[in-house]
Amino acid sequence: MSAKTYEVRTYGCQMNVHDSERLSGLLEEAGYVRAPEGTAEGDADVVVFNTCAVRENADNKLYGNLGRLAPMKTKRPGMQIAVGGCLAQKDRDTIVKRAPWVDVVFGTHNIGKLPVLLERARVQEDAQVEIAESLEAFPSTLPTRRESAYAAWVSISVGCNNTCTFCIVPALRGKEKDRRPGDILAEVEALVAEGVSEITLLGQNVNAYGSDMGDREAFSKLLRACGQIEGLERVRFTSPHPRDFTDDVIAAMAETPNVMHQLHMPLQSGSDTVLKAMRRSYRQERFLGIIEKVRAAMPDAAISTDIIVGFPGETEEDFEQTMHVVREARFANAFTFQYSKRPGTPAATMDGQIPKEVVQARYERLVALQEEISWEENKKQVGRVLEVMVAEGEGRKDDATRRLSGRAPDNRLVHFTKPDEDVRPGDVVTVEITYAAPHHLLAEGAAKAVRRTAAGDAWEKRNAAPAEKPQGVMLGIPRIGAPAPTPAPAAGPGCGCD
What sort of enzyme, by top EC class, is this (predicted)? Predict the structure, then answer.
């Protein structure tokens, strides 16, 4: 029997990327095979949408995509469509009512059930909607199909205990639940043994790790423990919350050699009035104080942020306070969002909703300021010699320019001249920066050194391995394996809810 193919489409934050790699692993464990690159829309036997509910257009995007698949599914009776993630957790039965051709709807707490639900829908010829109210299995214990051989996500917690008025994620992901440190470190060690050299610790509120266990210093201890793992070259984490960002974490970052001097710290607004309305438990002075401490301990730290423009009630004076913080903090880059009303959040019913044209004008001013600062900060990198970990597919023009691309220790994107010797993703190339643009650096001279790594070996092995012949989709409950490895870091931050 020929194997059925699958496609997973992911929207949203790093947690969704992490979950999607688990979904792919589950499907492959159950006998499905990934649809080849370039497969036409609607040609995969199973299409899974892993959705986000944070942005205003999330619903429109999903139903638009589902609408396009409807006639294709009519022509191919065996095709199945599944919808999971935050929007599925929120909308539940609504999805099948609006798109009755959907076969499976599952939530954020029961992603491990996908193969069983697909099989049940096929046998019963009826849509299966199953939304769990609490976590059934920590995602990291499920099988996985990682996108990268050399870099991986490692989830340390799920859920969020904050009550930000603009954010619906806590209602969909649940209360924070921490993994045991021993389980996390065992997963990291297993990843490194497979050739992974960079990991990103992942949590909806990553530095609140330990609150579940009653240990306020659990996160800094975890960072230091990662520093003891031989072969682990780079450790990152996302996304922290200013409320929980303590001095012991700054010390651990500064004193642990493989913890990168890179920090993504969501600001959301620079106005104390707006922060209070957002129910953010810090104020401008506290935020800038953290930035100052980080820079004192790590002068080379690259700091990025999330900012929301046009939150209900935001005045011109409030917006100027945000611009002030941006000037003071000098972020390497900022992910800026225009406030969008999300049903089910307190902010959606607040007075003082800002007209679209006002929000747009403020947004453009903020983006222009941040572009200027990003460029100025990147220009400071010119002349520096950096170790760049070669990435896969980050430079769209690399073939035309005979360049490769990768990430510096502080996560800046670097395009560099292709060395004469063979270089693989995961290897490390030492280059001198010769030019800076707002969003990337350029190293035009010859590489100063090339270091072949176990991560590069792992990439080469994965890409040289012949594909195993699939045995077809098995019936019944798929086997659940031991804790499995995790995904490659995404380019941007999370959903901006941290």
Answer: transferase
CB 368 within 8 A of CB 438: no
Of 124, 125, 129, which Cα lies nearest the Cα of 107? 129
Q: Check whether 495 is labelled as a binding-site residue.
A: no
Length of the chain: 498
DSSP annotation of 348? G
The answer to the question of whether 164 is labelled as a binding residue is yes
The residues near 197 (Cβ < 8 Å, ≥ 6 apart) are: 150, 151, 231, 232, 233, 234, 389, 426, 453, 454, 455
Cβ contacts of 271 within 8 Å, gap of 6 or more = 284, 314, 317, 318, 319, 321, 322
d(CA 396, CA 223): 33
Q: DSSP characters for 374-434? A: HHHHHHTTTT-EEEEEE-SS--TTHHHHTEEEEE-TT--EEEEEPPSS---TT-EEEEE--
* 311 and 266 Cβ atoms separated by less than 8 Å: no
86 is in an annotated binding site: yes
| Inter-residue contact 363 to 309 (CB < 8 Å) | yes
End-to-end CA separation in angstroms for the chain: 47
pLDDT, one tens digit per residue, over 166-196 is 877 766 667 788 989 999 999 999 999 999 9
383: left (phi over 0), alpha (psi -120 to 50) or beta: left
Question: How does pLDDT run across 268-309, given as a tens digit for each residue?
Answer: 999 999 999 999 999 999 999 999 999 999 999 999 999 999
3-state DSSP assignment of residue 51? strand
Does the predicted TM-score (pTM) go above 0.85? no
